[in-house]
Amino acid sequence: MSKGRFGVHGGQYIPETLMNAIIELEEAYNHYKNDAQFQKELSDLFQNYTGRPSLLYYAQHLTQQLGGAKIYLKREDLNHTGAHKINNVLGQTLLAKKMGKTRVIAETGAGQHGVATATAAALMGMECEIFMGKEDTERQALNVYKMRLLGAKVHSVTSGTATLKDAVSETMREWTNRIDDTHYVLGSVMGPHPFPTIVRDFQAVISKEMKQQILEKEGRLPDVVLACVGGGSNAIGAFYHFIEDTSVKLIGCEAAGRGVNTAETAATIATGRLGIFHGMKSYFCQDDYGQIAPVYSISAGLDYPGIGPEHAWLYDTGRAEYVPITDEQAVEAFEYLSRVEGIIPALESAHAVAHAMKIAPNMDKDKIIIINISGRGDKDCVSVAKYRGENINE
Amino acid sequence: MSNIKKAFEKGKAFIPFITCGDPSIEVTEQLVYTMEKAGADLIELGIPFSDPTAEGPVIQAANLRALTNGVTTDKIFDMVEKIRQNTNIPLVFMTYANVVFSYGSEKFISKASQLGIDGLILPDLPFEEKLEFLPLCKQYNIDLISLIAPTSHKRISMIAKQADGFIYCVSSMGVTGVRSEITTDVSAMIELVKKAQNIPCAVGFGISTPEQAKQMANKADGIIVGSAIVKICEKYGENCIPYIEDYVKQMKQAIL
C-alpha cells in the first residue's frame, strides 16, 4: 500500500507533474514538525495573532432549554478571521515560507478558507490567489471583497457546478501550471498525502485545548463531541485527541441539503461510495459510472461531494458516527443558537448544533456534549434571510 | 509484441485524441476509421469524466458535452465492439482513475481487454499508485501507460524502467491545451527514458501545428494531439469528420 493511508483510504492519486512538489512538501513537513523554532513561531502566531486558546463556553441557556445533557461550545468562531480555517492556514503558510515559496494559492467554498489564506499571505508578505466557484462568489460576496481587501486575487471558477469541488480542481490545475514558487494551501483534510495529515495536525489544536479545558471545568472527558463535516477539517481537529478515548462518542454532521433521498444533498457517508478523486481514495457522491455528483447544500463550506480519508476510516472502523442534517434543520439551529445564546454560528457549524438539539434532550443531565462552533455566521445572514423569504441588502 | 508497439514500427507515430461521445458516439466511431485512413497510427479514446483535473478548458468542455449527450462507459464499450469488427488500429483508453475503479477495476479492465483495447492512460495515477491497476492490466494484457512530466527529473528512470507500451511525455507544465511555444527540453527527458529502457516515447500537451509536430517528432517516436482536434469537434459538431480528416493528414505529413 502506498503512502498516507488510513485503512484503504488516502494515497496520492495526482498527475505526475505534481509528484515532486508533493514529495518536497512531505519532506519539509517531516522536518519542520519536529523543529522547535518552527513550532515556537506557530504557537506564537496562534496565541498573539489568532487569539488561541479559543474559549470553551458552557451554554447554560441552550442546556436548560433542551433539558438534557450539559452543552459546551468550542468557540472557533472567535478566532481571527472568524473560523477554524486560520489554524491550518497559518501552519501551511509558515511552512511554505520556510520552503522558500513566495506565492500561495487556495480553493475556497464559503470563503472562510480563502479569507484566512489571504490574511496569512498579507501577514507573511506572500502573493496570493484564491479560486472560488462562481455560485459561491455570489452567495458569499462579502468574503470575496475581504479577500481582495487583503491583497489576494480572486478567480471565479465557472467549470462544472461552479462550487467547492470545481474550485479544488481549478486550484490543482493552477498548481500544475506553476510549482516552483507556489504552495497550494489545501483547506481541508483531503487531497493527496501529505495534505490530510498536515491539515489534521494543524487543526488538532482544537481537541488538544478542548480536552484540557473540559478536564479543568468538569474534571472528566465529554460523552459526545459534535462537529460538522464537509471535507472534515474542523471535525478531525475536534476529534483527534479523543480518538483514543473510546468513551467519547464522536459524531460528524454532514450536509443533507434537501434530504438524503433527494439528489440535492452533499451527505457523502449517507449517499456516497468508495472512489478515487481529488488525489485520494475515500467515499464520494457519484453515479454508477463514477461521475462525481453535483452535490448541494445551503452551506457553501459543506457543499463538497467527498470526505477526508481519515473520516472515511473512522467511519469504517466504527470509531466515529456520521449523521445527515438538512438545510431546514441547520437553518433552525442557526436561528435557535442566535436567539438562545446570542451566538450566531456559521451555517456549517449550525449542522452540528442541529444534531445536539436532537440528542441532548434524550441524554441524562450529567452527560456532556461539546459542539465545535467552527465559525461565525455573519457571512450567512444574507443566505438565511433569503431562505426565509427576506431580501436584505448588505 | 503488443499492438501498441506496432504503432511505432512504421516511423514516427501520429496519435490523435478524441473524447468519446463528442459530438456523438456515432461520429466518434466514424472518426476512428477516418483518422486511421488519414494516417493515425494509434488512437486515444477519452472516456469522459465529470471532473477532469488534468485537462484544460477545451477538453473539459468536450467531457461535459459528451456526458450531457448521455454517453456512459457501457455505451463506449459497445462502440469499441463495433469498431473492432472493422479495424485493428491500436486503441488506448484515456480516462480518470475513478471511471475504472467505480466500474469495478477487474470488470473494466477485463472487458476492455476482451473488446480489443490495447492500453490505458490514467493521468491521475502516478508511479506510486500504479499497483491500484497494474496487476489487473498485466493479467488481462493491457498496457498501463506511464507519464513523465517536465518536473519528473530523477523520477524518469524509475518510471521508464517499469513502463509498458509507450511513455507519454508531457511536454509542458499545467493542463492539456494548445500552446504557442513549448520550452521544455523534451530531448533531455527522452534521453533519460532511453537510458532506462528502449521504449517508444510519444510527446503530448500543447502540440497543435504541423511545425510543432515536426519539431517534436525530431526528438520523439510519436506525437499526441488532443485539444486541437477536440476544438474542431467543438466548432463543426456533427459535420467535423472531413475537417478532422484534413487536419490529421496534414499533421501526419509533417512528421513523415
Overview of the structural elements:
The complex is a heterodimer of chains A (about 400) and B (about 260). Chain A is α/β, with parallel strands linked by helices and about 400 residues long. Chain A is built from 16 helices and 14 strands. Chain A folds into 2 domains: about 5-45 and about 85-200, Rossmann fold (3-Layer(aba) Sandwich), CATH 3.40.50; about 50-80 and about 205-385, Rossmann fold. Chain A has helices at about 15-30, 35-50, 60-65, 85-100, 110-125, 135-140, 140-150, 165-175, 195-205, 205-220, 235-240, 270, 310-315, 325-340, 345-360, 380-385; strands spanning about 5, 10-15, 55-60, 70-75, 105-110, 125-135, 155, 180-185, 225-230, 250-255, 275, 280-285, 320-325, 370-375. In chain A, the strands form 3 sheets. In chain A, strands 3-4-14-9-10-13 form a 6-stranded mixed sheet, with helices on both faces. Chain A has a 4-stranded antiparallel sheet with strand order 1-2-12-11. Chain A has a 4-stranded parallel sheet with strand order 7-6-5-8, with helices on both faces. In chain A, helix 2 crosses helix 4 (about 85-100), helix 10 crosses helix 11 (about 235-240) and helix 14 packs across helix 15 (about 345-360). Chain B is α/β, with parallel strands linked by helices. Chain B has 11 helices and 9 strands. Chain B has a 9-stranded parallel sheet with strand order 5-4-3-2-1-9-8-7-6. The model of chain B has no long low-confidence stretch (mean pLDDT about 95). The interface of A and B includes residues 19, 159, 165, 179 and 288 of A.
